Amino acid sequence: SLYQLTIEPDTVFARLEAAGKLAIPGDSLARALYEETQALCEAAGLPAYEISNHARPGEECRHNLVYWRMGDYAGIGPGAHGRLRSGGACHASATLRHPESWLEQVERQGHGLAEFVPLTREDVASEILIMGLRLAEGLDVRRYRAAGGTLRQDALAWLSEEGLVSWTPDRLTVTPAGRLVLNAVIAQLSARG
Question: For the chain, which ranges sit under pLDDT 70?
């Protein structure tokens, strides 16, 4: 996995950056670093199978592919999250974050769940879109539509003309240029037309 550092608010890194004691690369340097790591991994026989993950073909992390393909997974320990299909709906789960509280609740109730809520059809479709576009294999358009998702033809045409996506009736993939601006691609596809 190759991730760029994200500075979260109210952290030591955020305070160091604000004080000028932590140099964070600007957009052009971050882009150059991303492109270089992609090229180095590809040359080493480790193509990207997800926006930040590389592996030899056939050796992709099956555990993470479950998340990105929207499979079921249970979050068990403190602070864990899960997605489970139950009763015909997809549910989001989250456990208590603090280990002591989690353990006390497990001993009292047999689980450490803080929430177990059904996701709306729109939520599920949105997650399928976001996760699918992270993968080199792209979004399974039929699955997305079956979940209630819609793809705006005007957005697809514009993104395709800009060289950011490639699409067929069955599959939507983000190009290498599109990966650099994936959040913007997702925003375009998610916007109500």
Answer: 192-193
Domains of the chain with bracketed CATH = 12-44 (no CATH), 75-119 (no CATH), 122-190 (1.10.10.920)
The two tokens of residue 1 are 């996995």
Distance, CA of 130 to chain centre: 6
The span from the CA of 31 to the CA of 49, in Å, is 19
Distance of CA 20 to the CA centre of its chain: 30
Q: Is 49 helix (H, G, I), strand (E, B) or coil?
A: strand
Structural contact between residues 91 and 117, judged by C-beta atoms closer than 8 angstroms: yes
Q: Is the dihedral of CA 105, 110, 112, 114 positive or negative?
A: negative
Structure tokens at 36: 């270089």
- Cβ-Cβ contacts under 8 Å for 85 (sequence gap 6 or more): 72, 91
Identify whether the C-beta of residue 74 lies closer than 8 Å to the C-beta of residue 25.
Answer: no
| Neighbour count for residue 76 (Cβ, 10 Å) | 14
Q: Could you read off the pLDDT of 67-81 as tens digits, one per residue?
A: 999 999 999 999 999
> How confident is the model over 125-159, as pLDDT tens digits?
999 999 999 999 999 999 999 999 999 999 999 99
Q: Quick check: pTM over 0.85?
A: yes
